[in-house]
Every structure is written in structure tokens, then in C-alpha cells.
TrEMBL record:
Involved in peptidoglycan biosynthesis. Transports lipid-linked peptidoglycan precursors from the inner to the outer leaflet of the cytoplasmic membrane. It is a multi-pass membrane protein. It comes from Limimaricola soesokkakensis. Belongs to the MurJ/MviN family. It comes from the Bacteria. This is Probable lipid II flippase MurJ.
């Protein structure tokens, strides 16, 4: 077996995801400046979240979690992997074309299901309009996710990891075009002539969504063709292998549906608090930076690697891959979580507070950032634990665990919303994340040696936590000293960069001192 280079693949995906998140921050800074947390921002965010929600359900969720292990094992065994990928591509294209048409026609119902607090509000009509424009994104991005799975399973990570960068670049251009072009203020849907600029930006953002999906599909399709996989549109056929794929994907689809219900619960709770949909979205962008760079990278690389090792009977190699992925994940995300908890106000104020985004918006968003930060290690650990099940083609167990986590989310978010307001949505997400980790870990105990924590992981975990705690204290003290500079428009970016740099230097210094990791390991990984 020619194994996937786990750390090299992890770094490839992580670096490109980091670049995507940087462009994503630029995009969200511009959206916050033009739209703030107002009605147009909330309408667009709900409209864009609809195809994104179904994307996670169809592509990155159920289908890919079933497809990647099967495809990886065919690659390892030298079977006709390209034919299997072509059949899956044709089947997904057919099903999602039908689903896209249905979604466009049923958009008012989808918007109500996502944000019933918008009902009889100007936000509802605008969200329906934007949703119908943006919804074809689900077709393009789901096909792109399947093609990305083909590339990832064969150890080719760059094109699939680079594709999201294009999405954010297109969004940035759309904001600039929207600010430069016009929409008749008389079409302001009761929002007032002073909102006409925001409406122009919202229009171009909505139109850019399906375009971005098509461009991303084109990029990975070309990469797959160069790798020898010529995927094309064709008449779908229900072959025995696709029946097996559907049987494996069905429980994962149910599990994915449960996860999306969690998102719906959060949106529903937020929609009843003016501005909360936008506050949670901007907070989500901050904690998604480390989650995307680390968690998604681990999930993308670890699943095909474990699948191929299981096919080859390499239990020891599988255990080492699992432990090193979890170790590297926590070494990078625990300090990020600490930073989100201890300095959320400087982060949010410097990055977003300008134009239509006010000080009140900063404080509300910062509170959500801190709550999400508490759950960040859980969200990343899920990415390391789930491949243990999916690589064994076990999609039923994660479904049962997701159901239990959903109940935690619903009870906390809905039950506490009348008491603590919109932040109950973020708290429910965080507690549900930790419940899911505990259930996944407990369920993996029956998998034997390959799913056990090794001595190195246990030795380093508490040292990582200690280094992160010391870094948190350093950040608090430094933020207090830099407070006046963080509030000064001319130097606040420089002050924030200095704060973050000192925190990173402190963490790596403390980590080296405590034996949490060895910097030489990172250097060797980068060189490879």
C-alpha cells in the first residue's frame, strides 16, 4: 500500500483552508461594514445558509462519508474506481437537479422553516428572493464535493482545498460591484431609501452564490480529469454498488439531517431577536477559522487514510494515524479556543466594528464568540473520531449519537432562550458538541486497539492544556496594556496583530518548555 502522507496532506488542506478563511474574513468585514446586523444582512445570511445546509447534508455529510471509504478501498484494491465514481457523479447530478427545482419552488416554506421569526417582516420577502437566486449553489457545490472526494482519496488535496478560496474572492468582488452599481430605492421593500446601498450589495451577493459554486466545480473537475478521472454527465443507473452506497449513506443522511436540525434550532431561536442571526454568523466566522484550518483538514485527510489502512489490515498504522491527527488537532485548537474565550472583544471590534456595525453589535458578537470558543475543541475532536466509524462503513452509530446531541441542543437553546436570550443558541451548539464527542468516544471503545489513545497522546494532552492556559494569561495581560491602541483606528490592526503574535509565540514557547510538542516535528512536517 502506498499510504497517504497524513501530515503533509493535513498541512496542504490546512494552509489552503487558512487562506480561504483569510479571504472569508475580508468578505465578512466588507459585509459587516455595508450591511451591519440589519435586515438585508439577516435576509442574505439565511438565504445563503439554505443551500449550505443541504450541501453539508448531501455532499460533505451523508454521501461523502459513504462514498469516500468505498472509493478509497477500490483504489487500494485496484478495482474499477473510476467507473464507480462516474456512476455516483451521474446519480448525484440527477437527484440534485430535481431537488434544486423543488427547493426554488418551495423557498417560502424553507425560509419559514429556517427563520420563522422573519414572518410578516420585510426580511421574509427579501430572504425568499435571495434564496431563489442562491439555491442552485447546492447542485454545483455538491458535485464539487464528490469530485473533491475522488481527489482526496487518491492523495491529491490541493485543488479541493483551494476551491473555497474562489468562493470568497467572488463574494468580495460582488460586494464591490454592489457598492458601485445601483438598485432603484423605490424597491426597498419598506426598508427605507437609506438602505438602498445595502440592498444593492445584497442583490449582487445573492447572484454571486451559484456562480461561485460553478467555478469551484470547474476547478476540481479539471484537477480530476488531469488525475485520470474523466467524470461527466450521463444517464443515471442503479447498479449494485450504488445500492450499497445508498444503504450505507441512508443512516449518515439521517445523522446529517439531525445535525442540520441543530442548525435550524439555532437560526430559529436567533430569528426572534433582532440582529441575532447576523451576530451569530459573524461569531461563527471567527471560530470557523481554527475549525476549518484544523478540523476540516483532519477529517478530509484522515478518512481515506484510515479506510485504506483498514483494507490493508494495518491496524497499528491506523491507530498511529488516528492519534497523531487528534494530537495535532488539539495542539492547534485548544490555544485557539482559549484566545476566543479571553479576548473576544478586541477580536470582534478590530475586525468588524465599522460602518453599519456598531459597538452594541460588537459586544453581542463577542459574547457568542466566547461561547463558541468553549466548544471549539469538541467540534474538532468530532472530526477525528467520526472517521473511526465511517472508515468501517458504520454510519448508524453516529446517527444515534447525533440524535442524542440534538436533544441536548434543543433543550438548551429553546429552554433557555426566554431566560438568557439569543446566546442560548450558541450555548446549545457548544453543549451538543461536547455531548457528541463523549458519545463518539464511548462508542469507539468496542473497536479495539486501533481506536485507543496511545501513550504519546495521553502524555502530551495535559501539557497542551497547560501551555494554552499560560498563553491565556499572557493574552489577558497584553490586551489590557494594548487597550488604548486597540481602540485607535489608525493602529488597531497593528495592535491586534501584535497581540496575536505574542500569544502564538507564548504558546509555542510554553509548549516547548512543558513538552507539549517539539517544534522540530513541525519543521520536519513542513519540509516534507
Amino acid at each position: 500500500m502506498k499510504p497517504i502522507r497524513l501530515v503533509q496532506g493535513f498541512l496542504t488542506v490546512g494552509i489552503w483552508t487558512l487562506l480561504s478563511r483569510v479571504f472569508g474574513f475580508a468578505r465578512d468585514i466588507m459585509i459587516a461594514g455595508y450591511l451591519g446586523a440589519g435586515p438585508v444582512a439577516e435576509a442574505f445570511l439565511v438565504a445563503f445558509s439554505l443551500p449550505n445546509m443541504f450541501r453539508r447534508f448531501f455532499a460533505e455529510g451523508a454521501f461523502n462519508m459513504a462514498f469516500v471509504p468505498m472509493f478509497s478501498k477500490k483504489v487500494e484494491a485496484g478495482e474499477d474506481a473510476e467507473r464507480f465514481a462516474q456512476e455516483a457523479f451521474a446519480g448525484m447530478a440527477f437527484l440534485l437537479t430535481i431537488f434544486t427545482v423543488i427547493g426554488i419552488l418551495a423557498m417560502p416554506g424553507l425560509v419559514f422553516a429556517m427563520a420563522s421569526g422573519f414572518a410578516e417582516d420585510e426580511r421574509f420577502e427579501l430572504a425568499v428572493e435571495y434564496g431563489r437566486i442562491a439555491f442552485p449553489y447546492i447542485l454545483f457545490i455538491s458535485l464539487a464535493a464528490l469530485v473533491s472526494g475522488v481527489l482526496n482519496a487518491t492523495g491529491r488535496f490541493m485543488a479541493a482545498a483551494a476551491a473555497p478560496v474562489l468562493l470568497n474572492v467572488i463574494f468580495i468582488v460582488a460586494v464591490l460591484i454592489g457598492a458601485a452599481m445601483g438598485r432603484d430605492p423605490s424597491e426597498s421593500l419598506g426598508l427605507g431609501i437609506d438602505r438602498a446601498l445595502g440592498l444593492r450589495v445584497g442583490d449582487t451577493l445573492a447572484a454571486s452564490v451559484p456562480l461561485a459554486g460553478l467555478v469551484q466545480l470547474g476547478l476540481v473537475w479539471i484537477a480530476a480529469k488531469r488525475a485520470g478521472f474523466h467524470l461527466r454527465l450521463a444517464r443515471p443507473r442503479m447498479t449494485p454498488e450504488l445500492k450499497k452506497l445508498a444503504a450505507i449513506a441512508a443512516p449518515a443522511a439521517l445523522a446529517g439531517g439531525v445535525v442540520q436540525i441543530n442548525l435550524l434550532v439555532g437560526r430559529q431561536v436567533a430569528s426572534f431577536f433582532e440582529g441575532a442571526v447576523a451576530w451569530l454568523n459573524y461569531a461563527d466566522r471567527l471560530y470557523q477559522l481554527p475549525l476549518g484550518v484544523v478540523g476540516i483538514a483532519v477529517g478530509v485527510v484522515l478518512l481515506p487514510d484510515l479506510s485504506r489502512r483498514l483494507r490493508a489490515g494495518d491496524e497499528a498504522g491506523g491507530r498511529d494515524a488516528f492519534n497523531r491527527a487528534a494530537e495535532m488537532s488539539l495542539a492547534l485548537t485548544i490555544p485557539a479556543a482559549v484566545a476566543l474565550v479571553v479576548i473576544p472583544v478586541p477580536l470582534v471590534s478590530v475586525l468588524f466594528e465599522r460602518g453599519a456595525f456598531t459597538t452594541d453589535d460588537t459586544m453581542a458578537t463577542a459574547l457568542a464568540v466566547a461561547v463558541y470558543g468553549l466548544g471549539l475543541p469538541a467540534f474538532v475532536l468530532q472530526k477525528a473520531l467520526q472517521p473511526l466509524f465511517f472508515a468501517r462503513e458504520d454510519t448508524r452509530s453516529p446517527f444515534r449519537y447525533a440524535l442524542a446531541a440534538m436533544l441536548v441542543n434543543v433543550v438548551v437553546a429553546v429552554g433557555l432562550a426566554p431566560v438568557i436570550g439569543f446566546i442560548a443558541a450558541a450555548l446549545g451548539t457548544t453543549l451538543a458538541g461536547w455531548a457528541m464527542v463523549w458519545l463518539l468516544w464511548r462508542g469507539s471503545r468496542s473497536m479495539g486497539h486501533a481506536a485507543e489513545w496511545d501513550d504519546r497522546f495521553r502524555h502530551r494532552l495535559w501539557r497542551i492544556c497547560g501551555a494554552s492556559a499560560l498563553m491565556g494569561a499572557l493574552l489577558l495581560g497584553t490586551a489590557a496594556l494594548l487597550g488604548p491602541f486597540l481602540a485607535t483606528a489608525s493602529v488597531r490592526y497593528l495592535a491586534l496583530a501584535l497581540l496575536v503574535a505574542l500569544g502564538m509565540a507564548g504558546y509555542f514557547g510554553f509548549g516547548q518548555l512543558l513538552g507539549a510538542f517539539r517544534l522540530a516535528e513541525f519543521r520536519r512536517a513542513v519540509r516534507r
